[in-house]
C-alpha cells in the first residue's frame, strides 16, 4: 500500500510523540519506498536490502532531527541518499558521470520543496484561521470534521474559512488583491 506524505508525516509525528506501535508501522511502510529508491539507483545490486535496513536504522536513530514543519519524504530521501553515498564510498564503486545526477536526485525533492515554499508563501497572506483550514483539509487531507476538531471550531467555520481563503488566493493569483 502506498502512503501519502500526510499519512507518513502523521505516523512519524505520532512516533515522535511516543507511540511505539505507530513508529513500527512507519518503518514497515517505508520498506517498499526505500527498496524502490535504491533499486532505481543500483541495478541488480544484492546490497539493496542491507541499504534499506541501514536507512531504517538511521531513520530510527535520527528521528529527533526531523522538523515537524517540513515535508517528511524530503527528510526520508535525504537520509536514503546519504546511505547510498556511503555505500558507494565503502565499495569504492565508480559511477559514470552521466549517472551521478540521477543517483543523487531525491525522489521529487526539488519539486516538493519548491511547491511547499510556494504554498506557504501564498498561505502567509491569509488569516491564520483560513490558512490552517486550507492546510488541514487540502494539504494534510483531513476531513472537515477532523479539521474542526483540531482547530476547536465548528465544521461550518472550517468550510467558510476554506471557501473565503481559496477565494482570496484566486483573486491574488489573478492580480486583483
Automatic annotation (TrEMBL):
Transmembrane segments: none annotated. Keywords: DNA-binding, Sigma factor, Transcription, Transcription regulation. It comes from the Bacteria. One of its GO terms (biological process) is DNA-templated transcription initiation. One of its GO terms (molecular function) is DNA binding. SUPFAM superfamilies: Sigma2 domain of RNA polymerase sigma factors, Sigma3 and sigma4 domains of RNA polymerase sigma factors. Residues 26-92 form the RNA polymerase sigma-70 region domain. Belongs to the sigma-70 factor family. ECF subfamily. PANTHER family: ECF RNA POLYMERASE SIGMA FACTOR SIGD (PTHR43133:SF58), RNA POLYMERASE ECF-TYPE SIGMA FACTO (PTHR43133). This is RNA polymerase subunit sigma-70. It comes from Sphingomonas pokkalii.
